[in-house]
Structure formats: structure tokens, C-alpha cells
């Protein structure tokens, strides 16, 4: 493409994935991304310390970037399930998500993203209804603040083993929520397509009416190989599924399906993290190179 990717997408990164807080802290990586004009968007998660939260809010306000908020780490870190059949457990997950909407608003985000919880074949239908209860509550709370809610589509039997996807099941869920809440959408991630045994074309065409947010990254889906599952290694990682050709195909399908929207660009964020011994700055540069190459190869 002769035109810049930034014309059609708000390119972002997921801060806690690019720079894991246990290794890099929080504020310095945040400043690093905010200073980098390659990025139009940034995704953050809950900030536990009040002083850090206040400083983050001030820094984000200076940057003229789109701020996104991920509630996935909060749910996973506390083992909460928004589709639990135990009502008290479902309500605990709902409580966290309602609080996430409030914190996201404070930080300047216009919405949150979350994921569904574990399920079993015997109770899938009941879990579906429980997830609807949670999602509708969160969407209504967000709508009162003019905010959106995105449900990320995950694998269902490999790693996270979440209720939503695969893509056809995600489409069914989204269609039912959209009947009540127009501020709901789906977050799809190139990293997850191999883990749900689907292709970019199938996922994007199946979910086209509901996609509101995009992630890109990589996965290892060969059993027994390092990084197997939903680990989001760098592009080109040994035995992994995604590299420049797969990202190029992803861009091609997005273009064909009408997602190149210069007047209303969608957020497209890196979800790439480090494997042991790797360097965050180098992995970030790796991802930029792969994006730049795939975009350069895309036909006008």
C-alpha cells in the first residue's frame, strides 16, 4: 500500500504485553509508548496504586492517543468467570467489570474489553445465558457513560478454553446482545485464529457485522513445542503459526471486507509479548517490522 497504515487504522500496543510489569514496571514503559509516534492507541489494564493511576491519567491525557482498557487480566488474575453457573461467582465477575468501566472512564478510555470464562459441554447453553446476563449489565452501565464493551474471542479447547469462540458461536452471542445493546462488539485477534482452527477469511467474514476492535500477534499450536497455546510470542517464533504472510492475508481480508475506514479508523493493536530471555524493545521493533513489511506488500 502506498498510503500509510495510519490512514486506515489506529495502530496500538497492549502495554502489559509489550512490557510485562513484573520485569519493566509500569510508568516508564507507559511513557516510552506515549513518546513513540508510531502509535495512535494504547491499551492499559487496571492500575492498582492510586498515585500511579493519577499519574497515568495525566500522561495519557497529554498524548493525544486513543486509550483502550483491557479487563481480561483482572478476570484471569482473580480466576473470575462471567459465565459461571454459580450466581455469586458470576456476580463477582460482573462487579469487577462494572468497576473496570469506571476506571477506564477515569483513565480516558472510551470502552473496555473482556473475555468469557471456562465452560463444559454439558452446561454450555446455561453458561451462554449467564454470560448474556453479565454482558448486558456491563453494556448498560457503559452506555450510560457513552462507552463501549468488547468481548474478545478466544480459543475454546486449547489454552484459555473460553466459552466464546469459535467464530460462529461468537456471532450468535453478539447478535443476541446487539438486539439490546448497540454499544457491544467483538474483539478479534490474529493470534487466536490458529488456536480456534480458523482462518482470517473465515473469522472476519463470519463476524464482520460485530467486529469493533482488532489485535494481531502469533501463536504456537504444535503440541510439545515451546510457547504452545495462547502465549503470544513474537512473529517468526520457532514452530509458530503467524509471520509476515499471515499478517498480509489478514490485511487483505480486512481490505476486501470494508475495514479500511479512513473516516472512522478502528484500533489495531499488537498483542505480542516476550519469551524468557527476550528484550521488550527488540520484540516491539520486530512487530513493527513485520507490520511495515506486510503493509508494503499489500496491493493498492
Descriptive terms for the model:
300 residues, alpha/beta, eight-stranded parallel β-barrel, 11 helices, 8 strands, 43% helix, globular
Q: Describe it for me?
A:
The protein has about 300 residues and is of the alpha/beta class. The protein contains 11 helices and 8 strands. It has an 8-stranded parallel beta barrel, surrounded by 5 helices. The protein is globular and about 50 Å long.
Relative helix content: 40-55%
Mean pLDDT: 98
Our measurement of the CA-to-CA distance between the termini, rounded to an integer number of angstroms, reads 5 Å
What is the string of SSEs from the N terminus onward?
A: EHHHEHEHHEHEHEHEHEH
Low-confidence stretches: none
Q: How does the overall form come out from the CA principal axes?
A: globular
Main beta sheet: 8 strands, parallel, barrel
The largest sheet has its strands arranged as: 1-2-3-4-5-6-7-8
Number of helices: 11
SSE class = alpha/beta
Strand portion = 5-15%
Beta strands, count: 8
